[in-house]
Specification:
It is built from twelve helices and two strands; from the N terminus they run ααααααααααααββ. By secondary structure, it is mainly alpha-helical. The longest helix is centred in the N-terminal third of the chain and has 10 residues.
């Protein structure tokens, strides 16, 4: 039954799924060999009807994948893949809009990291916190800048996302993340961040060994422009 069940979920076969559900002998939260629950698998694939059927049958909406990953809950899986229909279904069924994965990432942070503008907009419209932080101190704006996704960055900034939030690793701000992974949207992202008040001279401290008191030593600093970006429009980094 479990093999038939997982095959039905992975293929999006609603009829076969309902037949197995009707037997009443399946653990809907049983993880497959990759550590994913049926609901995570269906959410990642964008199977609206399958997701709805599993939720109605009692599948755990917040159960994370067995192995740590960047998409380890049903809602973060759907958010990463840009499946807005699934996102809506999960929220309607009671999924937590700020429900964090193992490292504290929220669905909004995940959607932002993958440049999923429509999902980002919907989550914010439904009340998602644009300044929620992961365990490492990064936010949705940090990851949208890293993607880079100009549309998501502009939207988050307009919604009040902080442009000078620092992570807990080396003090990197969104402008530093934008410089780490140059892409087609990098110029637009940098200009939008600077227009919103990002400091082009902000420095990150690269943490070295700790002293006798346990305080990390800062070995050197990095400016955004040290990523090697050429001048951007009228802005020079």
């Amino acid at each position: 039954d479990e093999f038939v069940f997982f095959d039905a979920v992975k293929s999006g076969d609603l009829e076969a799924l309902n037949e197995v559900i009707s037997l009443g002998t399946i653990d809907f939260n049983y993880a497959d060999e990759d550590g994913n629950t049926p609901l995570i698998t269906a959410s990642r694939a964008g199977y609206n009807e399958v997701v709805s059927a599993l939720a109605n049958a009692g599948a755990d909406l917040e159960l994370a994948a067995e192995f740590p990953a960047d998409v380890d809950t049903p809602l973060t899986a759907a958010s990463a893949a840009g499946h807005l229909g699934v996102v809506k279904i999960l929220l309607e069924k009671g999924a937590l809009i700020e429900g964090p994965g193992r490292d504290g990432r929220t669905p909004l942070i995940t959607a932002s990291a993958h440049g999923q503008y429509e999902v980002v907009k919907y989550l914010v419209d439904k009340g998602a916190d644009v300044n929620a932080v992961k365990m490492d101190g990064t936010t949705s704006l940090s990851w949208a800048a890293y993607a880079p996704s100009a549309d998501v960055v502009a939207f988050l900034v307009d919604q009040g996302a902080s442009v000078d939030v620092m992570d807990r690793v080396d003090g990197s701000q969104p402008i530093h993340f934008a410089c780490q992974k140059p892409g087609n949207d990098t110029k637009k992202v940098l200009i939008r961040l600077v227009d919103a008040g990002a400091d082009v001279l902000a420095r990150t401290g690269v943490v070295g060994p700790r002293d006798q008191r346990g305080v990390p030593k800062v070995s050197h600093f990095t400016f955004p422009f040290e990523a090697g970006l050429a001048p951007v429009g009228t802005y020079y980094f």
